[in-house]
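Lab notebook, bench 4. The sequencing result for the construct came back, and we need a structural model before the next group meeting so we can plan mutations. Quick request posted to the team channel:

Model the 3D structure of this chain.
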Amino acid sequence: MRHFKIPLIATGIALILAIIVGVILITSIHNSQDSRSQKEQRAQAAGGAVAIATLVVLTPFWLFAAAKVGKQRREARQSPPRPRIRR
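Done. Here's the predicted structure in token form:
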């Protein structure tokens, strides 16, 4: 549907950015002098933070598009059906 064009583009951009940020974070954690368990904990926290940030950015796009689709469907249900023209 045409309402989902912008959310899909935003999702693609956000996922690419999330992967880039994740790689940067994991590389910096891997290069740190912390113990293995500390690195593991930091990596889990960083992954969760990137995931939450991505969802926070994407949620408004998808909710707005879903609201448009819902409004369009409600209007279609409430309007009288168009008569069919036979040829």
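The chain has one domain: 2-76.
Will bring this to the meeting.
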